[in-house]
Amino acid sequence: MPTGYFEAVAPRSDRGNAEAVWSYHATTSGSSVILPDGRCDVIVRYRNEESRSITPVVTGPATEPYEIEFDEGDSWVGVRLRPEQGANLWGRKIVDAREAVLMNDEALEMVPDLADILLAQPEETQLRTVLEAATAGFLERPVNQRVSAALQRVHETGGQVRVEALAREVGVSVRHLSRLFLGSVGLSAQTYVGVVRFHRALWLTMRGGLSLSAAAIDAGYADQAHLTRAVRRFAGKAPGTLPDDLILPDVSGVGFLGDSI
To answer: Where in this chain does the record put each HTH araC/xylS-type domain (predicted)?
Structure first.
């Protein structure tokens, strides 16, 4: 993890809350690659003390990497939703929210309570509390229980499960399960499974100390070449060129719970 990044992950049984609250404080100027995790985030970006500007950001579920630039002193605080909570935030628009990044007025339209943060201009140390309060309302809304059950299975297996098996376990057809996923998560079931398996493999090789070939087999890929193709797809780079300080959130079911904020 890069210096300055922390996340607090809620227990998987605590369905009424977000999956995690995270923060990042830039100790230098530069840029960073953000890996896709298939989730939606509500974020507040706090620029350095000289400009003292606060920018609200809402993201859709990502399957592609993107790069952010920052100055020394910039900070972010984010609420990472559970994948099945995507529709709670986006409503019916979740089916078109893939790779979306909304800022300022567009973000405020999605989460009106973020306007209170802009008016109050809280100190950086208070952002986590006020952001959690701003997102509490829609996080408490009910989610699709079949999707939740299927997601639990995906996470338990680290993405090593076929969509056909998921559909059987929750009692629907493969086509219907994919529609349910798209309407709740914003991604097809197959795509989401691929994202989780990719994250598991990265954890095993970058944090678990396994070789690329061993991580590939452990994560359920056919071989190292298969994993390499997945890394190019989701990270946009070859495995050997990935930076050591990538932010790897706990989304894969490996069991890492990160550092507490």
So the answer is: 145-245
